[in-house]
Amino acid sequence: MGVEAVLLGVAQDGGVPQAGCDCPRCRRAWAEPAHRQLVTCLGLADHATRQSWLIDATPDFREQLQALHTLAPGCALAGILLTHAHVGHYTGLVHLGREVMGARGVPVYATSQVADFLRGNAPWSQLVALGNVVLRSLTPGHEVQLSPSLHVTPVAVPHRDEFGDTVAFVVRGPARRLFYCPDIDAWERWTHDLRGFVEGMNVALLDGTFFSADELLNRDMSQVPHPPVTDTVERLAGVDCDVRLVHLNHTNPLLVPGTERDWLAKQGMRVGTFGERWTLG
Ligand SMILES: [Zn+2]
Ligand SMILES: [Zn+2]
Ligand SMILES: [Zn+2]
Fold first, then answer.
1. pLDDT above 70: residue 250
2. Measured in angstroms, how far is the CA atom of residue 166 from the centroid of ligand 1?
3. Ligand 1 center to residue 86 CA distance, Å?
4. Which residue has the higher pLDDT, 52 or 218?
5. CA 48 to centroid of ligand 1, rounded, Å
6. Which ligand is nearest to the CA of 166?
7. Beta strand pairing status for 270-271 and 41-46?
8. How far is the CA of 20 from the centre of ligand 2 (A)?
9. Nearest ligand, measured from the Cα of 24
10. CB burial class (10 A; 0-12, 13-18, 19+) of residue 56?
11. Predicted confidence (pLDDT) per residue in 124-156, tens digit
């Protein structure tokens, strides 16, 4: 089985349903648990070394760690990689502390800005002080070896950096490459060309937060910028790569079957699904 990646959630930071929300999609998800979506997260496993990793520690960390244990039995958690310090991507670290797991020395990989934020602010600083986690610094563009067959490269992406910068990850197994990019403000503000970059990958899990630019009726979308799915899909028409949209906001019509999903399928792309897995070699 070698090395594999498994998708452990596809929702934006707030999950589906979202706290306090009574919109039609959340109402349905409150009533029918099958329509709930965990926050976007990727699990990695190397079955040869019997190790596993999580990319992002989400508010659904509890369920996702358990799902990883079930999907990759015998592969112990060997580290957590963080894309950035927004609520949906790091707050699950609380479970490693003395009130819950009392973990010992779990490697947490983060950029130096995000590591400084964790080191300098409670309650995260306590995880470091008590040795629940050991911070390992990521430098964008520099590959890190997780195991003999598994390598990850953080890639800087433009995104609201209130508490630190943001990276996406290229995950490289012996035979295939996967790109994980849950949050980016705009493709045109990136230093890479999206299409060219994705053509170099076998799988791409991309920011699909909002379907269109007019989706947030009561909030100014310029405050929470993301490329609309319509823009992303247009840039990637016909690309030779398994593209999956992740990080869907609770307002996104792609969460349920309908005309938007049919349109996406016609473009050869899909919404990610919990438990979907890819062998990387
Ligand atoms: Zn996010
Ligand atoms: Zn809602
Ligand atoms: Zn974010």
1. yes
2. 10
3. 6
4. 52
5. 32
6. 3
7. unpaired
8. 8
9. 2
10. buried
11. 999 999 999 999 999 999 999 999 999 999 999
Q: How far is the CA of 97 from the centre of ligand 2 (A)?
A: 31
What is the reported pLDDT for 192?
98
Ligand 1: distance of its center to the CA of 89 in Å? 6
Query: 49: burial class by Cβ within 10 Å (0-12, 13-18, 19+)?
Result: middle
Question: With 80 as the cut, is the pLDDT of residue 110 above it?
Answer: yes
Cβ-contact 6, 45 below 8 angstroms: yes
Structure tokens at 44: 């990695």
The Cα-based distances of 117 to 80, 83, 106, 111, 209 in angstroms read 16, 13, 18, 10, 25
Select from 93, 276, 246, 280 the least CA-distant residue to 170.
Answer: 280
| Calpha distance 34→21 (Å, rounded) | 17
Strand order in the sheet with 177-181: 144-147, 150-156, 167-172, 177-181, 203-207, 242-246, 270-271
* Spacing, Cα 79 to ligand 3 middle (Å): 21
Q: What is the pLDDT of residue 218?
A: 64
Q: What angle do CA 33, 43, 260 make, to 5 degrees?
A: 50
- Calculate the average pLDDT of the chain: 96
Q: How far is the CA of 5 from the centre of ligand 1 (A)?
A: 19
CA of 159 from ligand 3 middle (Å) equals 7
Confidence of residue 217 (pLDDT cuts 50, 70, 90): low
Query: From ligand 3's centre to the CA of 247, what distance in Å?
Result: 10
